[in-house]
Amino acid sequence: MPRIPIGATIEAIIDFLVTHFSFLTIAFTRIMENVIRVMENGLLFLPPWLFIIAAAGLTFWLTKKRGIAIFTLLGLALIWNMGLWVPTISTITLVLIATLTALSIGIPIGILAALNTGVNRVVQPVLDVMQTMPAFVYLIPAIPFFGLGKVAAIFATVIFSMPPAIRLTCLGIKQVPRELVECADAFGSNKWQKLFKLQLPLATPTIMAGVNQTVMLGLSMVVIAAMIGARGLGGEVWRAIQRLQMGSGFEAGLGIVIVAIILDRVLQHYGTKKR
Amino acid sequence: MSETPREPKIRVEHLTKIFGSKSQEALKLLQSGVGKDEILEKTGCGVGVADASFTVASGEIVVVMGLSGSGKSTLVRCINRLIEPTAGKILIDNQDITTLGMEELRQVRLSKLGMVFQNFALFPHRTVCQNAEYGLEIQGMDPAKRREKAIIALEQVGLKGWEEYYPVNLSGGMQQRVGLARALALDPDILLMDEAFSALDPLIRGDMQDELINLQSKMQKTILFISHDLDEALKLGDRIVLMKDGAIVQIGTAEQILTQPANEYVSRFVENVDITKVLTAESVMIKPKAVVFLSAHGPKSALRFMQKQGLSQIFVHDEHHKVIGYVTADTASEATQRGETELHHIMQTDFVSVPPDTPAADLIPIMANLSHPLPVVSSEGKLLGVIIRGSLLAALAERGRTNNA
């Protein structure tokens, strides 16, 4: 019984792609690195105290809940106090770019999958693979394409965090009651009118739950992403692990938790918003 | 009632809907006379509607009625092609809907077909007014104008002042009024009403039925109403299409369905209907055997007519054939003996009369304390017939018998 050469085939394909197309992805990486640097510098340009007050104000304006604003104020102040300001900004930038990318790909795919059974049949197994395949596995091929660093980390984060956005968008649209869809049809709506006037508005809470999940998964990737040079808070944790520094590892971990809670509460507010 | 030859607005010809992947094969079997159950067994296809043909005239209410699973909802969805028919034609204003492309179909839906749904199908994220505006918004009307029209439609259904509420804040009856307003705002020629009142409480349902009848008398829409409630069908329908297992069993007026059931199924279906609510004065009255004219006849000729026909009283007409009173045999004979020649003095003018559409149930108390036969009088005052106690009871008894057979 000969061994089926799955691993060898995959390697050959990736080698082929790297040889012939990596010049494109590397060029893309250079551009992205600049975009990331500009964003980071932009956010770091503000003095931390001003940033913290602005962030607290923003969360209050978005949620109208005083508790979340106060938590933001104190949480970010603590991060600043622990001397983790620069890595935190770096992590926020990375998560922001990765999740925005994941959402801008994932939500349209989710819509397509909901409206077209053919697309759905292809998308579902791909999602299963994306969600169960250990993240390290696609971290490895990301390196030859994007080099060590933040872009490769973003790539891995996008893949890891996209499935809930697709699944929940798809679910949200499919859950729109059949009679309402029939009604939109009976009144002569075309596909786009049906989508924008009925399906998306009704699916919004479910889609927002997907957005929340995507952001959370993106944050949970920061330590793994640090292994290929993403730095940020994940980098601090990774360094602490290598040096067995329990204290500073815990501090960086706490920083991640604070950022996660702030983002989660703000997004959850939108997920449960009344129709 | 609906016998006047009006232009058919909707004409359904041999409409068949078969669900399942082998629908063409199943269609052939169906056309060769194979039964529904056997087709399901052989092809795995379900027959939704089998060879249904009927018309709906302009301004008419036709109620398609049947138990659940009889194919009535499928039928109405085929009319605006929410469900694609397998075979047959649907003509609206002589245009075959089944051959239209998607874009043309949308135009027909937009301009001619309003639909009202069983569970209201209101958009929860839109206000009452925005719901009523929906069809107009799809048409691309500008916001100020469509709002104005939507508000008029909401007023028509009695929802003035509720424009800015959301559907969740409204009771079921009010929600369905919004559903109705949404369809009316478009001012379509045709209203498709799929079990529109079935989800409502009986009392509210009755109100809504009255309101629909009232609106219809002003609007003269062509209405195809789906119902599983026989009383509703009898109340609303100018004609009723009775369905069973996807096929049409009988088409006719309420009275035809009740008094001449096409088969055992129909008569079983209608046996619990309170016949007195359906029979009208018109259907139980008898032709007056004789009448006299005030200007032409005297007591003597009146008496002769009565003796000849065996009557105890006779109705008097004026020169325009209007009923103005009646004369009894006793007074006529006394007047004859006194040698009078005019009917004026002996004529009783304080009589009760009823219009032809009075339900039999209302006739019984009227008849109970009446000394003369009950005249049935048209809106112009002409005598159409008379109801005597015997004829009313006979009519009820006879219909009762056919129903229980």
Q: What is this structure's SSE topology?
A:
The complex is a heterodimer of chains A (275) and B (405).
Chain A: H1 6-45, H2 48-63, H3 66-81, H4 85-115, H5 117-132, H6 135-146, H7 150-174, H8 178-186, H9 191-220, H10 222-226, H11 232-243, H12 246-271
Helix pairs in contact in A: 1-4, 1-6, 2-3, 3-12, 4-5, 4-7, 4-9, 4-11, 5-7, 6-7, 7-9, 9-12, 11-12
Chain B: E1 8-19, H1 23-31, H2 36-43, E2 46-57, E3 61-65, H3 72-79, E4 87-92, E5 95-96, H4 102-112, E6 113-116, H5 128-139, H6 143-156, H7 172-185, E7 190-194, H8 202-219, E8 222-227, H9 230-236, E9 239-244, E10 247-252, H10 254-259, H11 264-270, H12 275-278, H13 281-284, E11 291-293, H14 299-309, E12 313-317, E13 323-328, H15 329-338, H16 360-368, E14 374-377, E15 383-387, H17 389-404
Parallel strand pairs in B: 3-8, 3-9, 6-7, 7-8, 11-12
Antiparallel strand pairs in B: 1-2, 1-4, 4-5, 9-10, 12-13, 14-15
Task: Describe what you observe in this structure.
The complex is a heterodimer of chains A (275) and B (405). Chain A is an all-alpha fold. Chain A has helices at 6-45, 48-63, 66-81, 85-115, 117-132, 135-146, 150-174, 178-186, 191-220, 222-226, 232-243, 246-271. In chain A, helix 4 packs antiparallel against helix 5 (117-132), helix 4 (85-115) packs parallel to helix 7 (150-174) and helix 5 crosses helix 7 (150-174). The longest helix of chain A has 40 residues, at 6-45. Chain A is globular. The relative contact order of chain A is 0.13. The model of chain A has no long low-confidence stretch (mean pLDDT 91). The longest helix of chain B has 18 residues, at 202-219. In chain B, helix 1 (23-31) runs antiparallel to helix 2 (36-43) and helix 5 packs parallel to helix 7 (172-185). Among the domains of chain B are: 1-93 and 224-273, 3-Layer(aba) Sandwich (Rossmann fold), CATH 3.40.50; 282-398, Roll (CBS-domain), CATH 3.10.580. The mean pLDDT of chain B is 86. Chain B starts with 7 loop residues before the first strand and ends with a helix. Chain B has helices at 23-31, 36-43, 72-79, 102-112, 128-139, 143-156, 172-185, 202-219, 230-236, 254-259, 264-270, 275-278, 281-284, 299-309, 329-338, 360-368, 389-404, and strands at 8-19, 46-57, 61-65, 87-92, 95-96, 113-116, 190-194, 222-227, 239-244, 247-252, 291-293, 313-317, 323-328, 374-377, 383-387. In chain B, the strands form four sheets. Chain B has a six-stranded mixed β-sheet with strand order 6-7-8-3-9-10, sandwiched between helices. The chains are: A mainly alpha (275), B alpha/beta (405). The interface between A and B is medium-sized, with 17 and 24 residues.
